[in-house]
Structures are given as structure tokens and as C-alpha cells.
Amino acid sequence: MLSAQSTHILATQAERLGGMLGRAVRWLALGMVVVTFAVVILRYFFNSGSIALQESIQWMHAGVFLLGAAWTLQQDGHVRVDVFYRTMTPRQQAHVNLWGSLLLLAPVALLILLTSTPYVWESWKVLEGSRETGGLPGVFLLKTFIPLTAFLLLLQAFAEVLRNALVLRESGR
Q1: How many helices (H) and strands (E) does the chain have?
Q2: Quick check: 14 pLDDT over 80?
Q3: CB 164 within 8 A of CB 101
């Protein structure tokens, strides 16, 4: 059995990649605002447009949503039905979080990882690009966000299980 300190260190290491990516992709939200503003200015003041710029907004949105999901969970910023949870003791909350991670989060993330990998691999084999003329090349890179997100969620689920098991172990004494 791992010591409390070892468990904490292992959970922190599992969260490190998701945290780094989450903090990095939050800047994409600002990028979306700036690029959307540029698209509007180009369209309405210069009667010009850019498919690549419009697609870049979608790419940034995908990055924020997908690559920030594990970090959002790590920061306890995810959507939760708090009607019962907020009235629970920390030990009861740890049970909900531990079993939710084991029985819901991890299996769904694993399913996404397993089912998206062939889809993404096919895109990589042909180096898929945009279907739109003037669109962004490298759609295969964008599709790679899907299994990467699932992997990051699996890492976060592992960290959640460790942290909540530690809470249960400490509160059981």
C-alpha cells in the first residue's frame, strides 16, 4: 500500500500534463475573440473573408473544449448536480468522486480512446485537410485532440481515484 505522501505525489504527477495543457489552452479563448473580431472587421468593413480564419476559430474552440476538459475536472469546474452532493460530508463526497471516476469517467474515456483511435489513424494516413477551398490543412491534427482528450481524462480519473482513496483512508482513521 502506498503512503499518503506517495499517493499525493503520484496523483500530482498524473495531473501535471492535463494542468499544463489546460493552462495553455485557456489563452485560446482570447484568440477566438481576437480572430472573430478580425473576421467581422474584414467582412463588414473590407468586404473580404477568409475560410482559414473562420476555421481557425473552430479549431481554437475545439482546443479549449477538448484539451481543457481534464484540467476543468482537476479544478472542480465541471458541471455537477449539487442538490445532494453539497450536503454530503467530505467522506461521502470522496465516495461519490471515487466511484464516479471508476465507474463513469474512466470507462467513457477508455471507450472514446478506443473508438476514436482508428478514426484518427485513417485521417493521419491521408493527411486529411479541410474540405473547404482555402481552409486549413492538417485536419488530422485537429482530430488527434479526441484521443488525446480521452487519455488526459483517463490520467485525471486515475488522479481522482488516488486523491479520493486518500481522503477515505485518512477519514477512516
Answers
A1: 9, 0
A2: no
A3: yes
